[in-house]
Specification:
Elements (H helix, E strand, L loop, with lengths): L2 H5 L4 H10 L5 E2 L11 H12 L12 H12 L10 E4 L1 H13 L5 E6 L4 H8 L3 E6 L8 H10 L2 E7 L11 H13 L3 E5 L23 E6 L12 E4 L2 H15 L4 H13 L1 H24 L12 E2 L10 H12 L1 E2 L1 E2 L11 E4 L4 H19 L3
Parallel strand pairs: 1-10, 3-4, 3-5, 5-6, 6-7
Antiparallel strand pairs: 2-8, 7-8, 9-12, 11-12
Helix pairs in contact: 3-10, 4-10, 5-6, 5-9
The structure holds pyridoxal-5'-phosphate.
């Protein structure tokens, strides 16, 4: 077996989701899969793509019209790329994998946020990168000094950014973005910014990808799994200058050839006609976020208010057990599944991730169960 692959494990999010199936009557707030159907224009475009035999390989980089449409879409966020700087990938996952595989050599240092989406760490291990983690502030906002310190004391090649964040829901403020841009200008690094949830945001959007001066240092990864509620259809994309793209394309080509043709045509139509549906979903997530906040606060749990995505990451430190143990007990005794914070790295210890892409009824029942569990087990709240 490959020694590097042996070192990693299947994602803790998935492992916990599997455990739920074995606990009768349990409900799950574990998965990051929006509970909406895929927008109508997208499903119709996919049916049409099948009926018109658009079922063959597309070019490796993806359907031209879709790459052009993505450039137009990104301009709404003040992000500027040309069609040739876009590669359509098999979800954001393949985008991340192809990017990191293409730019890193064995022993290259990558600076990752902690806690963070587990793929960054695990892909880095598979490709023998050397992982350094930067801590976040207590409210999970960016600690620029901590990043500066790591960049100045370690020989970092790649800085990973992830906003809105899975698992914390944190986003980048204007001040943080501007300080980051200054830092990136000073340092000889490549920045990979994973913006899978960029359309699900409850405040102003800011990204380092908006700055033209540092464009040659930035690789932007995003996708449509979350914003179009189409996680199973597997369309993501990478946007970056040609010097990176020509290497990323080789990994992408030999790994997957191209993203699924039918789903590419669906996304094309979605970008042209379904952005209103995205706005409706965003509003629903914001309302649910407010509900989760009010229930968690009523339980006296410490929690930073998310500003994007559809996750909330309350502290469970006061219960004096590991997050894995707490979530196991909550599942077995409280019949509610949430993901232990350590599924997002060591710095996730003391937290649990709640996904609120579930219906109002399920959320209400889930928080009632959490309340009952805390009252019976810890006589608190
Ligand atoms: C931050 C982040 N990046 C990337 C991905 C991967 O997305 P996809 O399902 O499109 O592969 C996810 C999925 O949960 C995510 O949360």
């Amino acid at each position: 077996m490959n020694k590097q692959v042996e070192k990693i494990q299947i994602s803790g999010i998935r492992r916990f989701a599997e455990k739920v199936k074995k606990v009768e009557g349990a409900i799950s707030l574990t998965i990051g899969q929006p509970d909406f159907p895929v927008p109508k224009h997208i499903s119709e475009a996919m049916i049409n793509a099948i009926n018109t035999n658009k079922t063959v390989y597309t070019s490796n980089a993806g359907v031209d019209e879709l790459r052009e449409e993505i450039c137009r879409y990104l301009k709404n966020f003040d992000i500027d790329y040309d069609k040739d700087e876009i590669c359509i990938t098999v979800g954001g996952s393949e985008g991340l994998y192809s990017v990191l595989f293409a730019i890193m050599n064995q022993g290259d240092k990558i600076l990752l946020p902690g806690p963070a989406y587990p793929a960054y760490e695990n892909i880095s291990i598979m490709i023998k990168g050397d992982i350094i983690t930067y801590p976040l502030k207590d409210d999970f906002s960016l600690d620029i000094d901590a990043i500066r310190n790591k960049l100045e004391t370690e020989n970092i090649k790649v800085l990973m950014l992830s906003f809105p964040s899975n698992p914390t829901g944190a986003i980048l403020s204007k001040e943080e973005r501007d300080s980051l841009i200054e830092l990136i200008k000073e340092k000889d690094i490549i920045v990979v910014t994973d913006e899978m949830y960029s359309a699900i945001i409850f405040d102003e959007y800011y990204s380092v990808a908006q700055d033209k001066e540092i464009k040659d240092k930035v690789i932007y990864v995003s996708g449509f799994s979350k914003i179009f509620s189409m996680t199973g259809l597997r369309i993501g994309y990478v946007a970056c200058p040609e010097k990176y793209m020509k290497e990323i394309m080789k990994v992408h080509q030999y790994g997957v050839s191209c993203a699924p043709s039918i789903a590419q045509y669906g996304v094309l139509e979605g970008l042209q006609k379904s952005l209103d549906d995205v706005e409706e979903m965003r509003k629903t997530f914001e309302r649910r976020k407010d509900y989760c906040m009010s229930r968690l606060k009523a339980l006296n749990l410490e929690v930073a208010e998310p500003k994007g995505a559809f996750y909330i990451f309350p502290s469970i430190k006061k219960f004096n057990m590991s997050s894995e143990e707490f979530c196991e007990k909550l599942l077995n005794e409280g019949k509610l599944a949430c993901v232990p914070g350590t599924a997002f790295g060591e710095l996730g210890e003391g937290y649990m991730r709640i996904s609120y892409c579930y219906s109002d009824e399920i959320l209400k029942e889930a928080f009632d169960r959490l309340e009952n569990f805390l009252k019976t087990k810890f006589k608190c709240c």
